[in-house]
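Q: Hi! First time doing this. I have a protein sequence and I read that you can turn it into a structure. Is that right? Here it is:
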Amino acid sequence: HMKDAMAIFGSGRAAALLAFIPWLKASQIFYWGDIDAEGFEILDNLLSVFPGASSFCMDFETLDTYRKETTTGSNAAVKNLPHLNDKERLAYQFVVQHNLRLEQEQVHPDWVQSCLQSLL
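A: Yes, that's right. Below is the predicted 3D structure, encoded as structure tokens:
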């Protein structure tokens, strides 16, 4: 339970459309997407609009913990994603180089809660 919090679910590629919601500019934003090339591209796009946003469960530790649940990625090429931090960039490069995808649904809710709690 998180007081005064709101979760937005939906198409990750539409995340940048949130820029048109003025009050979000002053809000603390946490983003969690699939750990794959596209998930990190979406995160980079979101960070370009909301530079203060933070990702969670999108790091090498999560990927390594759930490595057995990964599937084949989309054969994406490495792109320059300038808004990612070092931990995000490491995970991004790894999934692209190894053509991996870890979908959100494969990550245990307790792990997600722990990652989110570490941000608060």
